[in-house]
Amino acid sequence: MRTVMRRFAQTAQATQTSRAAPARQRGMAAIEFALVSGVFFMMFYFVVTYGAVFVVQQSLSRAAAEGARALLTSEFAASATPGIRTSSVIAPEQLGRDAAARVVAWLSDFRQTQSQPAIAPAVVAAPNCASGMACRTVTVSYQNYAAYPLIPSLLPSSMMPQSLSASATVQLDPEQWARAGGS
């Protein structure tokens, strides 16, 4: 009988201890959530911030490629191919700048909301070109990205790129380029 009483007393004491334990742990889940959610939020924010850098860089690369493609199109548009509209009124360089500017119009609008100049693509003669060919490079730049990022950064500006740019070079036949009105 004593062993039964002893076991009953041990069981009762264990039950009281287990009931008292949750009272001492009250609020622990909230503290753990606060610690974990803060770290998770910071990691998520850094991923989104760097993702925005990649989105801008990809948009600039696509704009440069579209500008170069427009230069190629202008080369063939002035040819004697029937059914293709020629663009003798607009210079091929302007067609390249306009095509690139259309792709980054959303970035230009964003920059103008922050009192920054719009993104202005440039078309210049490429210095390293095969002999007998006319080469043009389309360059698109987002200047001062560290000061005016797409998503405000919690990182120091030294960790963000100062500017982003992309370029695409196209090799053209000089005779067709001259007929298209290129300089």
TrEMBL record:
Q: Which UniProt keywords apply?
A: Membrane, Transmembrane, Transmembrane helix
Q: Where are the transmembrane segments?
A: 30-56
- Pfam families, alphabetized: TadE
Domain (TadE-like) spans 27-69
Superkingdom per UniProt = Bacteria
Note the InterPro entries from the entry: TadE-like_dom (IPR012495)
Q: What is this protein called?
A: Pilus assembly protein
Organism source for this protein?
A: Pigmentiphaga aceris
